[in-house]
Each structure stands twice: as structure tokens, then as C-alpha cells.
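Researcher: Quick test of sequence recovery. C-alpha cells follow.
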């Protein structure tokens, strides 16, 4: 579970960088984690919406843990997800990668990447099972909620980058903020990049970061129609493979009700709402043995 932490943690010992995965006409960097004994199967791990991609230590630790459990783990780096691109194009790239791996692969994905992955499966990608951690079902409601001041700035910025309301300089600065959120203070570049903006640009960027920009309230009703093409609830009935939905009970980015309602629509769902997770972070399991058992059962269902 330490693999879910956003910050900190040691770099896992992966066997090697694998040959690049080709999708959407581009080569994608890929890491491969190989078990010491004969593999029990393959798991594709999608990293979340983060500029660090496969270098995100949470993804690496999780992949390393799956390899220790006997699974070969494939972890491509999706440029779309690094840019916080929540669009049908990203769904198409995920589907192309899945199609290339064959129908016996299991897929694990967090947060918005989980929803995009489920959409790819609904559109025909063949997989053995899916584990979605902290994902969404109703994308319009989820994106609209994240434009408010009451949620994590990281999530709000990821949504705003898909709104088409800021110029490219402003978007680049916000992507730098996302990168800085997951690195050591000595590696942070945001203050220097923020200083390159003019006054008007700087005010908009600051307002997005702290949630004070006055136009954010109006954007809720103006979310582009294209987001309907990445909704999951509306196509859940087409997802025929087993789907394990794991959600933090205190997730303030995407609330657990999203997984609860999605589970009601999926033909083969296993739901685990756990106090051991927030959104991408973990809590101490020391005094919650029942919750540990429930989470272990969920992963066992996914890997079985």
C-alpha cells in the first residue's frame, strides 16, 4: 500500500527498461518488472495524470509489489497522461496498447486514468480484468466538482488544462506546477517559470492554483461536450470483464460515491471502499485489520 503514496518512498528495483511500446504513431517509453519465478500472468499498470509518468514512485512501488507477487508487469509511459490530456484521443491510445498486449492481460489504473481505461474496454479493448483505484463514473459531474476551491489544487489544474481556456504559456506553467508537486523542493521549477508570465497571465494562473479565479464558477456549465466521450457510467453495461473498484473512503478529489454508483452499473463488479486510502495516498493500517483484509480480498479478486 505504500505504493500509493504521492511523495517519498524508495525507487523500486525493476529488471530493465523494456522495448518501447508503439501506439498512436509514437514510441512510448516502457518499464518491465519481472518476477523471480515463472510469471503467473501479465499486468499492465497505467500511471496516473502526472508529468512524472513511469517515474512516479507510487507507480513503481506498486508495479514492483505485483512482480513480487509473481506477475510480469508492463508499465508504458503515456504522453497523453503526462500532459493531463483527458480526451477521446487518450482513450484511443490506451485501447491501442491493450489491443497489442492481447486479451489475457490484467489492467490496473488509478484516478482519471482508471476511467479512461474503462472507457477503452467499453469500446472493445480485450482484457482479462480491470482494477480501478479512485476512478470516476460520471465524468461531467467529477470534472465540474473539481473546478471548485474545495478540492485539491492538483486535480483542479488537471481539469483546467482540458478546458481550452488558457494559452499555451499558461498551460506550460501549470504543468510545471503539477511536476513540482511530486518532486523534492530542490528540484522544483515552478517559481522561475511562473516569473516568465505577464501580469494578466500570472493572475489567471494564480487563480487556477488557489481556486480564486472568478471564471472558474462559470466553467462548470461550459465543460466541452467532448467529455461525454470519456464518460464511464453511460457505457458501463458494455464492460463484460470483472472490474474491481477500490476507492478511499475519505477521497476528496473523486468521492467514493463515484465507484459505488459505477458498481451498480457494471455487470461484474467487486467494490471495496476502504479507510486505508485517500486519493493516491495511504493511511496506517495498524488498527484496522478488517480494512486490510477487505483490501487484500479486492486485489486477490483482481489477480485471480
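Model:
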Amino acid at each position: 500500500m505504500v505504493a500509493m503514496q504521492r511523495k517519498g518512498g524508495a525507487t523500486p528495483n525493476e529488471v530493465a527498461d523494456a522495448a518501447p511500446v508503439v501506439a498512436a504513431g509514437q514510441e512510448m517509453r516502457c518499464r518491465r518488472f519481472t518476477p523471480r519465478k515463472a510469471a503467473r500472468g501479465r499486468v499492465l499498470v497505467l500511471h496516473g495524470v502526472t508529468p512524472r509518468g513511469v517515474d512516479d514512485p507510487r507507480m513503481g512501488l506498486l508495479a514492483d509489489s505485483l512482480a513480487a507477487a509473481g506477475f510480469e508487469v508492463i508499465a508504458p509511459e503515456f504522453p497523453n497522461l503526462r500532459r493531463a490530456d483527458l480526451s477521446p484521443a487518450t482513450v484511443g491510445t490506451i485501447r491501442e496498447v491493450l489491443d497489442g498486449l492481447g486479451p489475457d492481460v490484467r489492467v490496473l489504473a488509478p484516478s482519471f486514468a482508471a476511467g479512461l481505461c474503462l472507457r477503452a474496454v467499453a469500446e472493445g479493448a480485450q482484457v482479462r480484468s480491470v482494477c480501478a483505484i479512485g476512478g470516476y463514473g460520471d465524468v461531467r459531474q467529477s470534472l465540474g466538482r473539481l473546478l471548485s476551491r474545495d478540492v485539491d489544487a492538483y486535480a483542479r489544474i488537471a481539469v483546467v488544462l482540458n478546458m481550452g481556456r488558457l494559452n499555451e504559456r499558461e498551460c506550460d506553467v501549470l504543468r510545471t506546477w503539477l511536476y513540482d508537486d511530486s518532486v523534492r523542493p530542490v528540484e522544483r521549477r515552478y517559481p522561475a517559470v511562473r516569473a516568465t508570465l505577464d501580469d494578466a497571465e500570472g493572475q489567471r494562473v494564480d487563480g487556477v492554483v488557489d481556486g480564486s479565479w472568478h471564471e472558474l464558477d462559470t466553467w462548470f456549465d461550459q465543460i466541452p461536450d467532448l467529455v461525454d466521450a470519456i464518460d464511464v457510467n453511460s457505457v458501463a453495461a458494455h464492460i463484460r470483464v470483472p472490474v474491481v473498484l477500490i476507492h478511499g473512503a475519505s477521497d476528496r478529489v473523486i468521492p467514493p460515491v463515484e465507484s459505488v454508483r459505477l458498481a451498480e452499473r457494471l455487470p461484474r463488479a467487486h467494490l471495496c471502499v476502504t479507510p486505508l486510502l485517500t486519493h493516491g495516498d495511504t493511511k496506517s493500517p495498524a488498527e484496522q485489520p478488517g480494512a486490510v483484509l477487505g483490501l487484500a480480498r479486492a486485489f486477490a479478486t483482481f489477480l485471480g
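The chain has two domains: 2-138+231-303, 150-224.
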